[in-house]
């Protein structure tokens, strides 16, 4: 428009110059000199050519401007992302075809419509704050809202906009891009529900080992709430000595070398609950790249019950092995013992009353020991079965004396002194007499094997705190400190 005015002004000036020169010339009767007339015509032709050239340039500029305008309108109208121009009152001033389709209304009917009318009521406050922020701060802002109109399904959209530049004066318009994120939000919701409902614990940390995600299964497993662990070091879930090595392992071993045997493998390790309990877990770790940073996600399964079942299977296998061995021993030893018992009974009948009382007593003790050995043999076979006891009142001093009457001569013959320290008036206890005797015999034999060069074996029985204390002491070499005496019998 300015160029057109300039051209008209230039044309007017040329006309004035011509008219002025004609009037300044001599009277018409005198006529114009030929040379002056030629100069004037030449000047007019030059200005005419200049005007024609300027008209051509203006026409080219007009066509280029029209082409640019069409391209802009095509880009704006056909853009895959919806665009809308709003004023300070939130009224739609302009919207492209994608935006009109997203709102489900013809574009010609949208101008002057309040955009907030398409936003669900629960999100309108957020939308109004978003609009005020665009004009108040003049910076780009974003907000997620739900839009719905009529019977059309609701959509989750991301609004991203900024106020338009208005030169030196403030702008009364803002440009807002509308992105449909419904599919993304559904995928996020699906992933969130999957993480929340899975039975495995899911724990995510950053490269500083700070916890960023802690699902409900992890809450149940470790006893912490997600709020309690958020932003804290994951070492709180790891018992010592592994906790102190965790950060160094992530930064030095993995971030530097890129190698970590835990990534992509299932490891059996231990965790620590809020109450301090240590429990076995199966751990699988994966690495996720977020922007230019990495996150580590651990999938954790509590295998306490699995470990318990495995221990039961091992125990059953051990007991089955013991049962097989004892069955063989019973078969190989029980028969000779039965024969020995029958021979003793036969000797007792043949000797009858004519025999010496000491001989008869000796035979009786031998017979009792054979019976005890048979009982022990069958008790050994019952190691793989539930124990049963014949509980009756028993005198500990009498049991000790019976044991010494049989074993003392053999023990003394090896250079070992036997000392008895007990009160014969000790009260009777409710016990299995044969099993107590067998325990004493086993302890005495252990003591005997520990005193290969001789020594002293002491059996001490006394009452303390309403209980009978029975001790077997020796002066032998003792047991190495790193030896677990009861490991073979552990159940």
How many alpha or pi helices?
A: 12
Count the beta strands: 15
Percent in strands: 15-25%
Task: Return Rg in Å.
Answer: 53 Å
Helix content: 40-55%
**What is the string of helix and strand elements?**
HHEEHHEEEHEEHHHEEEHHEHEEHEE
Structural class: alpha+beta
Low-confidence stretches: none
Query: Largest beta sheet: what is the strand line-up?
Result: 2-1-5-4-3
| Form type | rod-shaped
Distance between the termini: 102 Å
**Main pleated-sheet profile:** 5 strands, antiparallel
Query: What is the mean pLDDT?
Result: 79
Structure keywords:
22% strand, 491 residues, alpha+beta, five-stranded antiparallel beta sheet, rod-shaped, 12 helices
Mind sketching the topology for me?
Elements: H1 2-24, H2 34-78, E1 82-87, E2 92-95, H3 97-103, H4 124-137, E3 141-147, E4 155-163, E5 173-180, H5 182-197, E6 201-205, E7 211-214, H6 216-222, H7 226-229, H8 242-255, E8 266-272, E9 278-290, E10 293-302, H9 304-351, H10 357-381, E11 391-394, H11 396-412, E12 416-422, E13 429-432, H12 433-450, E14 455-464, E15 467-474
Parallel strand pairs: 12-14
Antiparallel strand pairs: 1-2, 1-5, 3-4, 4-5, 6-7, 6-10, 8-9, 9-10, 11-13, 14-15
Helix pairs in contact: 1-2, 9-10, 11-12
Describe this structure in words.
The chain has 491 residues and is an alpha+beta fold. The chain has helices at 2-24, 34-78, 97-103, 124-137, 182-197, 216-222, 226-229, 242-255, 304-351, 357-381, 396-412, 433-450; strands at residues 82-87, 92-95, 141-147, 155-163, 173-180, 201-205, 211-214, 266-272, 278-290, 293-302, 391-394, 416-422, 429-432, 455-464, 467-474. Strand 6 and strand 7 (211-214) form a beta hairpin. Helix 1 runs antiparallel to helix 2, helix 9 packs antiparallel against helix 10 (357-381) and helix 11 runs parallel beside helix 12 (433-450). The model has no long low-confidence stretch (mean pLDDT 79).
């Amino acid at each position: 428009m300015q160029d057109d005015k300039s051209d008209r002004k230039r044309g007017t000036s040329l006309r004035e110059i011509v008219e002025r020169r004609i009037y300044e010339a001599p009277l018409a009767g005198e006529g114009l000199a030929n040379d002056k007339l030629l100069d004037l015509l030449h000047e007019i032709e030059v200005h005419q050519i200049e005007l024609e050239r300027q008209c051509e340039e203006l026409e080219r500029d007009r066509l280029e401007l029209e082409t640019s305008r069409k391209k802009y309108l095509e880009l704006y109208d056909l853009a895959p992302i919806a665009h809308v121009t709003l004023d300070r009152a939130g009224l739609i001033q302009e919207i492209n075809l994608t935006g009109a389709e997203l709102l489900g209304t013809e574009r010609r009917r949208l101008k002057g419509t309040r955009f907030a009318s398409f936003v669900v009521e629960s999100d309108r406050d957020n939308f109004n704050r978003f609009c005020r922020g665009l004009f108040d701060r003049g910076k780009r802002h974003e907000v997620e809202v739900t839009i719905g109109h009529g019977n059309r399904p609701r959509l989750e959209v991301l609004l991203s906009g900024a106020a338009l530049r208005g030169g030196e004066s403030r702008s009364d318009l803002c440009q807002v891009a509308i992105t449909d994120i419904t599919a993304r939000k559904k995928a996020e919701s699906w992933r969130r529900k999957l993480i929340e409902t899975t039975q495995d614990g899911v724990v995510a940390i950053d490269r500083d080992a700070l916890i960023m995600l802690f699902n409900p299964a992890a809450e149940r497993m470790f006893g912490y709430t997600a709020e309690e662990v958020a932003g804290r070091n994951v070492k709180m879930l790891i018992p010592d000595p592994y906790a102190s090595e965790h950060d160094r392992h992530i930064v030095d071993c993995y971030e530097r070398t890129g190698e970590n045997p835990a990534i992509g493998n299932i490891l059996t390790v231990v965790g620590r609950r809020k109450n301090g309990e240590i429990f076995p877990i199966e751990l699988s770790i994966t690495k996720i790249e977020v922007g230019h940073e990495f996150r580590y996600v651990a999938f954790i399964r509590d295998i306490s019950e699995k470990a318990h079942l495995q221990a039961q299977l091992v125990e059953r296998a051990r007991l089955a092995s013991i049962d097989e061995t004892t069955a063989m021993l019973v078969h190989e030893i029980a028969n000779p013992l039965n024969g020995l018992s029958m021979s003793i009974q036969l000797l007792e009948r043949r000797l009858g009353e004519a025999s010496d009382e000491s001989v008869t007593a000796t035979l009786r003790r031998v017979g009792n020991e054979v019976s005890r050995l048979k009982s022990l043999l069958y008790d050994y076979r019952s190691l793989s079965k539930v124990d049963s006891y014949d509980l009756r009142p028993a005198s500990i001093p009498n049991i000790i004396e019976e044991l010494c009457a049989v074993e003392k001569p053999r023990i003394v013959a090896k250079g070992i002194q036997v000392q008895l320290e007990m009160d014969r008036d000790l009260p009777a206890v409710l016990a299995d007499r044969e099993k107590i005797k067998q325990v004493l015999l086993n302890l005495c034999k252990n003591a005997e094997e520990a005193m290969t060069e001789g020594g002293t074996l002491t059996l001490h029985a006394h009452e303390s705190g309403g209980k009978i204390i029975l001790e077997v002491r020796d002066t032998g070499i003792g047991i190495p400190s790193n030896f677990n005496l009861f490991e073979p019998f552990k159940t």
